[in-house]
């Protein structure tokens, strides 16, 4: 329930509504408008390549080698975004904050980015879409990306003064997510309404579980 409702203070209760899809309560790190269905990839690690393996010290002993290392990182990052573009990936959902270099090349190659998803949001997206997080495949940037979901829309959404991300996914199961937008004059009223609705949904869930057992 926490991931499928959003509270907005300062608006009348009558402004409450139900929206198809899910609402992520954060703004785009990069937004590139796209029409129609778009492929989305979920990641749980930084996409800026590291110069060494974890636990291995990387020593740069000259300015020239340092600059060469930075050029290699930029080249690898750009190659990954080109790979996304060639696989028609238009949306990157990340549980970690990506570095500015990743955001720069994402904008350059038309990939929208949403960062800092919670573990609960990642689990919800995986359940809806049936996909697993994408992992860069070593030095092979030519293989087809199969760990992608289909989003029917992805757009900014303004809730009060807060900019959010509204996404509709093609679900692979019977569960068709909708997000409840709860509006009220103050946060306390919204919290009361949310608690009451969650209790009602819990009761209905238990009721139908009893009926179908």
UniProtKB/TrEMBL annotation:
It comes from the Eukaryota. InterPro entries: BBS10, GroEL-like_apical_dom_sf, TCP-1-like_intermed_sf. GO terms for biological process: chaperone-mediated protein complex assembly. This is BBS10 protein.
């Amino acid at each position: 329930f926490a991931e499928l409702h959003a509270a907005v203070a300062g608006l009348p209760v009558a402004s409450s509504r139900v929206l198809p899809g899910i609402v992520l309560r954060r703004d785009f790190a990069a937004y590139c408008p796209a029409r129609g269905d778009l492929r989305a990839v979920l990641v749980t690690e930084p996409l800026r390549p590291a110069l060494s393996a974890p636990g291995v010290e990387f020593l740069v002993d000259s300015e020239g080698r340092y600059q060469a290392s930075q050029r290699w990182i930029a080249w690898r990052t750009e190659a990954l975004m080109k790979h996304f573009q060639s696989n028609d990936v238009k949306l990157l959902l990340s549980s970690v904050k990506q570095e500015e270099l990743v955001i720069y090349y994402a904008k350059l190659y038309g990939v929208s980015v949403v960062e800092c998803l919670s573990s609960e949001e990642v689990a919800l997206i995986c359940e809806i879409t049936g996909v697993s997080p994408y992992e860069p495949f070593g030095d092979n940037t030519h293989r087809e990306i199969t760990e992608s979901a289909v989003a029917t829309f992805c757009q900014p959404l303004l809730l009060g003064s807060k900019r959010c991300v509204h996404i509709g996914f093609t679900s692979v199961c019977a569960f068709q997510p909708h997000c409840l937008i709860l509006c009220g004059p103050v946060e306390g009223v919204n919290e009361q309404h949310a608690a009451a609705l969650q209790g009602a949904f819990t009761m209905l869930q238990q009721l139908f579980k009893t009926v179908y057992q």
